[in-house]
Design a protein that fits this description.
Blueprint (H helix, E strand, L loop, with lengths): L1 H20 L6 H8 L3 H7 L3 H25 L4 H18 L1 H10 L5 H27 L9 H12 L2 H4 L8 H16 L17
Length: 206
Amino acid sequence: MEEETLRDQIVKAALQLFLEQGYQATSVQEIISLAGTSKGGFCHHFASKDDLLCLIHDTFISYELARGEEVLRRPGSAASRLHQMIIDLGESIDRYRPHVRVFFDERRFLSDEKFAVVKEKRDRYEMMVRSLITEGIRNGEFRSDIEPRIITFALFGMCNWIYQWFQPGKGLTAREIGERFSRLMLRALEPRPADCPIELNPDSLE
């Protein structure tokens, strides 16, 4: 329990410093000092700043993956489950806003090795969302002239930017924003009239 508490203190200190002065400008010693630990205490949990940045990402992507897997297991339409995925994504970005901000602002500094680990998890989450869009196309819930990969990127582009402007306690809640984003997306995915067919490339469903 003490070790978990120390790790949390180190992560909290790193988040604060990365937000205030950036990843590259922050030294390990500054993190150690703010966390109130020693170099040995830091090294017991992390080999480098890279490890810290990777864990910061892992904190929120693991939550999103767990929520996504739960939603995919549910019965119901593809639309209802995609609706929940969008709401969950919005709420995750609110719940882990400092982690999300640090990751998106500083991810370019991750080593290739660490970024490969990050990318694998992000790709898994992308495929969860894409599978729901593909399912909706195949069963007629969604229009047939769209490409799941492009729609998935559009959805992430819309939701992942929330951290830049969302202010808790001012205006809509994260859930309300997710609700509105979901309605916007699902409306765009509604089937087209039969007199406006656009041929879909079967490869885009893979």
